[in-house]
TrEMBL record:
Top EC group: oxidoreductase
Superkingdom in the source lineage: Bacteria
Function as written in the Swiss-Prot or TrEMBL entry: Ring cyclization and eight-electron oxidation of 3a-(2-amino-2-carboxyethyl)-4,5-dioxo-4,5,6,7,8,9-hexahydroquinoline-7,9-dicarboxylic-acid to PQQ.
Transmembrane as UniProt keyword: no
Family: Belongs to the PqqC family.
EC number, UniProt record: 1.3.3.11
PANTHER family the UniProt entry points to: 4-AMINOBENZOATE SYNTHASE, PQQC-LIKE PROTEIN
Catalysed reactions, semicolon-separated: 6-(2-amino-2-carboxyethyl)-7,8-dioxo-1,2,3,4,7,8-hexahydroquinoline-2,4-dicarboxylate + 3 O2 = pyrroloquinoline quinone + 2 H2O2 + 2 H2O + H(+)
Pfam families linked: TENA_THI-4 (PF03070)
Organism this protein belongs to: Sedimentitalea nanhaiensis
Pathway the protein contributes to: Cofactor biosynthesis; pyrroloquinoline quinone biosynthesis
GO aspect biological process, one term: pyrroloquinoline quinone biosynthetic process
Entry protein name: Pyrroloquinoline-quinone synthase
Stretches assigned to the Thiaminase-2/PQQC domain: 10-220
Length: 249
């Protein structure tokens, strides 16, 4: 039976309440100041792979959209990450965070040392958006519904617990507090409009669950390699690699 608009939105929000990666123990460790400098660096390196893949995901989505209005709306997401003449973009801001934690930004941007588990999860998301229906692709992006809460918690926790944290190094998260609401307002309304049958609603909900699994899997890979049991797989970043020159001396 097709749910009402309000009930379907509540269903999507419940998925986030139960499955969003703010519930993962790594975030408690990070935000509470329990991460070592190398664990923070491992997180920055692996999360960068996700950040740098998002514009490619959005470009893949736009290449399939025939409606110019939808393309115009979606284009700002790429600009938010890649930057414009007036906006340095989220990728540059993330590399500034990398430098603040003692990493060479060029090393991070090379994506060397990224965990295989991170790559598999992120690449699966890009492929999902490229191959699934437009409804499923947009629904998968609705994890943005839950992002402002984790960004606010992250800013507060990092500022309280880590010497590297300041307005410059945390500018990525501060900007997402402004950028994400406009994206999610459009994306949520579009999904609620388009998912007008039970089959479409089920597909959209499954897409959102898939995306929460993508985010959770990245943290599971990070936890297994750098926290507990702490077995770094072959080819992954090892402490001491890719440090900024001033920190390596």
């Amino acid at each position: 039976m097709t749910q009402s608009r309000a009930d379907f939105e509540a269903r999507l929000r419940q998925i986030g309440a139960e499955r969003y990666h703010d519930l993962h123990p790594f975030h408690d460790l990070l935000h509470g100041g329990g991460c070592s400098p190398d664990q923070v660096r491992a997180w920055v390196i692996n999360r960068y792979y996700y950040q740098h893949s998002i514009p490619m995901k959005d470009a893949a989505f736009m290449s399939r959209v025939e409606d110019p209005a939808l393309r115009r709306q979606w284009r700002s997401r790429i600009e938010d990450h890649d930057g414009t003449d007036r906006n340095e973009g989220g990728i540059r801001r993330w590399l500034r965070l990398a430098e603040a934690v003692g990493l060479d930004p060029d090393y991070v941007a090379s994506c060397q040392g990224v965990l295989a588990g991170t790559k598999f999860a992120v690449d699966a998301y890009v492929r999902y958006v490229r191959e699934k229906t437009l409804l499923e692709a947009v629904a998968a992006s609705l994890t943005e519904l839950f992002a402002p809460k984790i960004h606010a918690s992250r800013i507060e926790g990092l500022l309280q617990n880590y010497d590297f944290a300041d307005d410059s190094s945390l500018s990525y998260f501060r900007n997402r507090l402004k950028e994400a609401p406009k994206d999610v307002a459009f994306g949520l309304a579009w999904v609620l409009d388009q998912a007008d049958t039970q089959e479409k609603q089920d597909a959209a909900a499954a897409a959102l669950i898939f995306k929460t699994d993508v985010l959770w899997s990245q943290l599971d890979a990070l936890w297994g390699a750098y926290v507990e049991p702490g077995r770094i797989p072959p080819g992954a970043w090892c402490p001491g690699q890719g440090l900024a020159l001033q920190r390596a001396s």
